[in-house]
Amino acid sequence: MGRVSDAEADDTGESVPWLEHRAAEDEDPIRITLERLPFRIGRASEADFVIHSTRVSKEHAEIDRRRNTWVVRDLGSRNGTFVNGERVTEPRRLRPGDVVHVANRSFSFHLGRATSQRDDATVLGTSGGELVGVRDLALAISQRRVHAVFQPIVDLATGALRGYECLGRSDVPREIGEPPRSIGELFRSAEAQGRAAELSRLLREVQLADAPLLAGDGLRFFLNVHPAELEDDSLIDALAEASQRVGRGRLTVIEIHESTITDLSAMGRLRERLRERAIEIAYDDFGAGQSRLRELAEVPPDFIKLDLSLVRDIDQSPARRDLVAALTRVMRDLGIRVLAEGIETQGERDVCLEIGCELGQGYLIARPARVSSGP
């Protein structure tokens, strides 16, 4: 199903292929026009879209046109390329709306007429992109041109506030009259320059400065940790300090992307050291790409956060609904609490509650906001 034969062809005319990519759940998507074919995704700097992750191969996947049909091909990657959750083992036909997963990144495929709309993607690997990235990242870090925003997390059954995810926004300008660069762009630049841990620490600092201003006892504050920080010996002490700064009677939850959990022994030791300091762990973006149940069984977190690709339109997908329902049953048996991210409609919220998701966050509930504007 979805495989390409030489006889298959679509009349795409002069339609322009493009990918929609969201660097983070709370950010607006960016549009990436596939101007050069084949369009390659990988870790190497010469790729058309660079992902700086150890889970991504140097040459990971490519999108190309075969006759009048668009296809995606895995380039022998170690961790695989997926379309709509199914691993690509041979060239696979792409249809509008299909979602391609590479590690923890997802790209939805579209066809449309050429427009004057400027793509928002900053693709590192070109000299111009790298120069802009160096300048803007230096400005963000040296002048602290970032600020904190907080997105409420609620009990889906009662609507009661249970905590906040602490997020960051960039104040680095593009051009006069244009919006600031996204935090995703800054992180892509930071990863290319080896400064991702530094940027992550800066964001946590501004978040912790504002978190005590939010009213409420017994709340949990979900803080993101970049994979580059996991090798830092000072991380535990920094997180212990963060836990004290959120305020008395509050808890700290550290979000770790599930794709970075490759050394179970090391993750087990990290979990125990955090628990000694009353700090909890959440596996973030669970379901993006190749999620693995072994990690859940051997090093169970306190929470899993379902990726938005599982939550989006779940009320319209019986198969995905059954899959997530089965997953939540397993989580309950393991004592893991399930949080659904990216809830945007009442239908999504109703189904997530019905199938066992205890907590939720998303635009339907509340958008991320600064403390001064009241999350």
From TrEMBL:
Residues 1-22 are annotated as: Disordered. SMART domains: EAL, FHA. GO terms for molecular function: cyclic-guanylate-specific phosphodiesterase activity. Residues 39-88 form the FHA domain. Residues 130-375 form the EAL domain. CDD domains: EAL (cd01948), FHA (cd00060). This is EAL domain protein.
